[in-house]
């Protein structure tokens, strides 16, 4: 379970100092699929970075089970990310000099996962193992990045607008893949998006507006990626 | 388009051109001033000394000055290439917007001024140092008083020609680089020119990364090897110089060699890190430790640095042996030259300390690389 209490984050200093997260409190159950919905600039990415231990908080606390992430030093945060967190970025960020299988191996090695090839097949790229990232389409790159994140067997998968750079057909395919894998493997999934429709696939929807969570909704019957409008 | 902030990063270029011109100006000026003195020499002892001085001046300015000039050229080409690679995307956008490649390339004349600053200071520095230098060269008083003259031709060749040359080189380099399609520049594909592995391997990720890094960046491998080569040869040469020539010259070569090697090593490692910033940030986000990142990124180059050291050692030995046996063969009191083992170990130790310090510094710096920074990039 992830528990966030009165989380604050500032950027800049002096006169240009601005509060990006203005006291966020929420919790996310284990095995839950939560979507954080908000307009561009509302602080979603910042929130995700802080909750996943990529950035330090300026106030409040973020706990995963009984570990307080906001109090961790660099080494501890790095270990936490290694053992608990998987991250998928809007811009994929694959390593350009390495082939698909080596990119996925980057995640797999952290968990001693020898079986990572089956994940590449699960995301439908079994025939592209030896391709380099620039030889792949956007959707394919995003699927590699998902395989890479899952290969390290994360307890929580964070995704920052994973379909934001994809067209509709590809976006649906990636979203569908994510939802299915989440149900099969049972990890916790926290996805950030500005797309209202995508929120319908999640069990929990948290709406964010200029640094605050303004609404929390439970979704008793989540739709599949092919049932929603885009 | 090229900002002052960027210029400050070119300080390495200034330092290297300073060193090169300093040494060349010192010896060449001395040589040029020595020629008219020939008419005033009558005794045999003075004649022999005169010849020796002439050869030394020639050999040193050709060997070390030539070496330094070569290093400068390599360093500059490397820096220019790297600078353009780092701005590949901006340049691509300019090109995509319809800017003619040549007018963009013209902006790169700005590489000239840092070189000019270095060469001008080097030349001025040499002139300031000349009184002391001339005195030690003629400390026995065998030669007539050699007065310091200003040679405009030398000044032109050592100060203005290199600056102009490197301005043009930068323009030409960027023009060639800009000839590729705009989209390729924007996607930074010149950087990601994936060089496939010759053999399929199934190593742990960190080792795969290490190997791929060396494979993808051959120019860096060369550059790093070269900088260690310079370090090894200059430091060991100066050790032997104390016996063969004057201690003053030994110190000069030593300090210039160390300075050069430090600058090139720093530039090389900085570019390794800069080229790998995204990879490092990504690895850190996944939970790899900073030490693991720096080792994966930099350790692949280590064998090459040792190779550079070995080559530099052999090179300086052969060079000095040749100098002693060929140039000074008519002189009886020149000591026989033997390979200097302690000097080699000293130099190796110094190199290891330098290299490890740089690595350590970068590991510390790597802790600061944040994902945020590259996401906003
Ligand atoms: N490094 C930074 N320095 C200053 N301001 C920042 C920085 N990162 C984000 N911001 C600001 O914080 C706000 C929220 O950004 P972000 O979390 O990226 O929003 P979202 O992901 O919802 O679009 C924006 O107004 C943005 O300008
Ligand atoms: Mg965002």
Can you describe what's shown?
- The complex is a heterodimer of chains A (230) and B (377).
- Chain A is of the alpha/beta class.
- Helices cover 29% and strands 27% of the residues of chain A.
- Chain A is globular and about 50 Å long.
- Chain B is mainly alpha-helical.
- Chain B has 2 domains: 1-191, no CATH class; 193-377, no CATH class.
- Helix content of chain B is 77%, strand content 0%.
- Chain B is built from 16 helices and no strands.
- Chain B has helices at 4-8, 11-34, 44-86, 88-96, 101-106, 112-137, 152-177, 182-186, 205-216, 218-244, 247-275, 277-286, 290-298, 302-327, 341-366, 371-376.
- The longest helix of chain B is centred in the N-terminal third of the chain and has 43 residues, at 44-86.
- Chain B is globular and about 75 Å long.
- The two termini of chain B are 17 Å apart.
- The mean pLDDT of chain B is 80.
- The chains are: A alpha/beta (230), B mainly alpha (377).
- The A-B interface holds A 45, 49, 54-55, 74-75, 78-83, 85, 87, 89, 91, 93, 95-98, 102, 105-110, 132-134, 152 and B 187, 189, 191-192, 194-195, 204-206, 208-209, 212-213, 215-216, 278-279, 282-290, 367, 370-372, 374-375.
- The complex binds adenosine-5'-diphosphate (ADP) and magnesium ion.
- Residues 44-45, 160-161 of chain A line the site of magnesium ion.
What's a quick, concise take on this entry?
By secondary structure, chain A is of the alpha/beta class. Chain A has helices spanning 44-51, 74-83, 100-108, 116-122, 138-151, 168-185; strands at residues 2-11, 18-28, 33-38, 59-64, 67-68, 85-88, 156-160, 188-193, 204-209, 212-218.
Q: Give the ordered list of helices and strands of chain B.
A: HHHHHHHHHHHHHHHH
Give a list of the ligands: adenosine-5'-diphosphate, magnesium ion
Q: What distance lies between the first and last C-alpha atoms of chain B, to the nearest angstrom? A: 17 Å
Number of helices of chain B: 16
Q: Can you tell me the residue ranges of chain A where pLDDT is under 50 for at least 5 consecutive residues?
A: none
Query: What proportion of the residues of chain A is helical, as a percent range?
Result: 25-40%
Q: What is the spatial order of strands in the main beta sheet of chain A?
A: 6-7-8-3-9-10
Shape of chain B: globular
- CATH-derived topology of chain A: Rossmann fold
Give the overall pLDDT of chain A as a whole number: 92
Largest interface: A-B, 32 and 32 residues
Strand coverage percent of chain B: under 5%
How would you classify the helix and strand content of chain B by structural class?
mainly alpha
Which range does the strand content of chain A fall in?
A: 25-35%
> Would you count the extended β strands of chain A for me?
10
Radius of gyration of CA atoms of chain B, rounded to a whole number: 24 Å
**Can you tell me the CATH superfamily of chain A?**
P-loop containing nucleotide triphosphate hydrolases
**Estimated structural class of chain A:** alpha/beta
User: Spans of chain B with pLDDT under 50 lasting ≥5 residues?
Assistant: none
Radius of gyration of chain A: 17 Å
């Amino acid at each position: 379970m992830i528990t966030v209490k009165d989380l604050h984050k500032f950027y800049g200093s002096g006169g240009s100092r601005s509060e990006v997260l203005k006291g966020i409190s929420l919790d996310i159950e284990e095995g839950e699929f939560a979507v954080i919905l908000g307009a561009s600039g509302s602080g979603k990415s910042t929130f995700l970075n802080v909750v996943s231990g990529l950035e330090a908080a300026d106030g409040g606390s973020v706990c995963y089970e009984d570990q307080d992430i906001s109090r961790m030093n660099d080494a501890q945060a790095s270990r936490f990310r290694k053992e608990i967190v998987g991250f998928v970025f809007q811009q994929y960020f694959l390593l350009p000099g390495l082939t698909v299988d080596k990119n996925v191996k980057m995640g797999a090695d952290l968990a001693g996962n020898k079986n990572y090839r089956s994940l590449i097949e699960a995301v439908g790229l079994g025939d592209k193992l030896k391709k380099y990232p620039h030889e792949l389409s956007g959707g394919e790159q995003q699927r590699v990045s998902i395989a890479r994140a899952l290969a390290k067997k994360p307890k929580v998968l964070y995704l920052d607008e994973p379909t934001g750079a994809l067209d509709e057909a590809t976006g649906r395919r990636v979203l569908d893949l994510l939802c299915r894998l989440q149900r099969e493997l049972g990890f916790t999934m926290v996805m950030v998006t500005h797309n209202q429709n995508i929120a319908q696939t999640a069990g929990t929807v948290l709406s964010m507006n200029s640094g605050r969570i303004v609404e929390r909704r439970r979704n008793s019957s989540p739709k599949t990626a092919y049932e929603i409008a885009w | 388009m090229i900002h002052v902030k960027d210029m400050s990063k070119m300080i390495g270029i200034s330092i290297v051109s300073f060193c090169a011109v300093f040494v060349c100006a010192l010896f060449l000026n001395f040589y040029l001033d020595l020629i008219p003195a020939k008419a005033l020499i009558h005794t045999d002892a003075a004649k022999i000394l005169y010849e020796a001085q002439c050869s030394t001046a020639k050999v040193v300015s050709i060997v070390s000055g030539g070496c330094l000039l070569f290093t400068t050229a390599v360093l500059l080409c490397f820096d220019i290439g790297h600078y353009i690679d780092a701005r590949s995307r901006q340049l691509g956008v300019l090109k995509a917007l319809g800017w003619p490649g040549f007018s963009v390339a013209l902006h790169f004349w700005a590489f000239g001024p840092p070189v000019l600053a270095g060469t001008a200071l080097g030349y001025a520095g040499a002139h300031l140092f000349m009184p002391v230098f001339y005195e030690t060269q003629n400390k026995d008083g065998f030669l007539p008083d050699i007065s310091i003259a200003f040679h405009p031709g030398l000044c032109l060749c050592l100060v203005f020609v290199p600056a102009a040359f490197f301005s043009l080189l930068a323009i030409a380099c960027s023009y060639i680089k800009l000839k590729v399609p705009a989209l390729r520049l924007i996607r930074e594909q010149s950087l990601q020119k994936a060089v496939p592995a010759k053999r399929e391997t199934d190593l742990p990720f960190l080792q795969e990364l290490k190997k791929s890094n060396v494979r993808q960046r051959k120019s860096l491998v060369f550059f790093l090897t070269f900088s260690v080569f310079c370090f090894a040869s200059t430091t060991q040469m100066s050790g032997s110089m104390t016996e063969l020539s004057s201690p003053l010259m030994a110190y000069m070569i030593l300090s210039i060699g160390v300075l050069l090697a430090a600058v090139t090593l720093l530039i090389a490692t900085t570019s390794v890190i800069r080229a790998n910033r995204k990879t490092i940030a990504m690895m850190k986000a996944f939970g790899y430790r900073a030490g693991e990142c720096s080792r994966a990124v930099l350790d692949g180059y280590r064998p090459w640095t040792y190779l550079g050291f070995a080559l530099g050692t052999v090179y300086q030995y052969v060079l000095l042996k040749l100098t002693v046996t060929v140039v000074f063969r008519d002189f009886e009191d020149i000591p026989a030259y033997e390979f200097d083992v302690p000097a080699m170990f000293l130099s190796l130790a110094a190199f290891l300390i330098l290299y490890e310090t740089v690595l350590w510094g970068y590991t510390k710096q790597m802790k600061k690389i944040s994902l945020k920074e590259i996401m906003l990039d």
